[in-house]
Amino acid sequence: MLRIRYTGAIIYLNDTITKGVTQLNDIIEIGSVLKNYRLSFDLTLEQLANNLNNIYPDENFTKGKISKWERNSETPKVTSLKRVADYFGTSIDDILTASGLTNDIIAEIKSTSEKLTEDRKLKVLNFAKSELTEQNTLIKESDDTYTVRVCEKVAAGTGYPYCCEAPTEYHTNRSDLRDYDFATLVDGDSMEPKFMDGDVVLVKSGYDNVNGDVYVIDYNGKSYVKKLYNDGDRFRLVSINKKYDNIIIDIPIDGDIYFNIVGKVVDSFTPIK
């Protein structure tokens, strides 16, 4: 079980400092959440361990270790949990939220606040308003915008036909975009919540890992953005949105079928309206 110890603004997970979670003396069982993610990707414990080891060779993932996490008999380190979350296209916060943490925080705040005197309740309210103002200010603090030229749509759904329209300019206020070779536009909801319909994805040509990273793939005259796996005898194109089935491409690929791994998605952003 994942034990969280709260000390001020810093949270300790198994004596490792992390941020973003503030629940006092709580124990969260994340095993069922991790197992649900694994099963939704049609992976055995051994397959998941092998895929993670291919992506993160500096860490020894084993099916026994993952099994213990899923049974809540052992707690993953924060770094390990972060890597598992990244692999499934989610975040630690999302995993903890799925484990029921968010509702627990709200309930704890409400329960604690009700026990305070009126003047202390007012202090809590003023502090919350101050935090909200600061949060909104941080979101709006940069007026600089950056232009990205987008060439064509890529499906996050059932496939989008090629289109060779003139590049369209999209704008973002992010100044930290990763280096990329070309940009394209997501069309569909199959990669939500990581990539939303209308998001711009930045792509680096070629590939260096086909065991779970997100790629732009050309397949039979259509282009896709999917998590790509090489299972040895087949490629699997996997959506994050669970309502979509995997696309299976057998190896060797039929000579009449066009299949090309265009490039790896290295960054993305939601355009400024």
Description:
- The protein has 273 residues and is an alpha+beta fold.
- It folds into three domains: 98 residues, Orthogonal Bundle (434 Repressor (Amino-terminal Domain)), CATH 1.10.260; 34 residues, no CATH class; 124 residues, Umud Fragment, subunit A, CATH 2.10.109.
- It is built from seven helices and 14 strands.
- The strands form two sheets. Strands 5, 6, 7, 8, 9, 10, 11, 12, 13 and 14 form a ten-stranded mixed β-sheet that branches. Strands 3-2-1-4 form a four-stranded antiparallel β-sheet, with no helix packed on it.
- The longest helix has 23 residues.
- The radius of gyration is 22 Å and the shape is flat.
Set out the fold topology.
Elements: E1 2-7, E2 10-13, E3 16-18, E4 26-28, H1 31-40, H2 45-55, H3 63-70, H4 78-87, H5 92-98, H6 101-114, H7 118-140, E5 146-155, E6 160-161, E7 168-172, E8 182-187, E9 200-205, E10 211-219, E11 222-230, E12 234-238, E13 247-250, E14 259-269
Parallel strand pairs: 5-8
Antiparallel strand pairs: 1-2, 1-4, 2-3, 5-7, 6-11, 8-9, 9-14, 10-11, 10-14, 11-12, 12-13
Notable characteristics:
single chain, 273 residues, alpha+beta, 434 Repressor (Amino-terminal Domain), Umud Fragment, subunit A, 3 domains, ten-stranded mixed β-sheet, four-stranded antiparallel β-sheet, 7 helices, 14 strands, flat
Determine the CATH superfamily of the largest domain: Umud Fragment, subunit A
Architecture of the largest domain, according to CATH? Ribbon
Unreliable spans are 1-27, 135-142, 160-164
Question: Gap between N and C termini, in Å?
Answer: 43 Å
Number of domains: 3
Work out the radius of gyration. 22 Å
Number of strands: 14
Main structural class: alpha+beta
Described by the principal axes of the CA atoms, the overall outline is flat
> For the record, what CATH class of the largest domain applies?
Mainly Beta
Largest sheet: 10 strands, mixed
- How many helix segments? 7
Instruction: Kindly report the CATH topology of the largest domain.
Output: Umud Fragment, subunit A
Mean pLDDT: 77
H/E element order: EEEEHHHHHHHEEEEEEEEEE
Helical fraction equals 25-40%
Beta-strand proportion: 25-35%
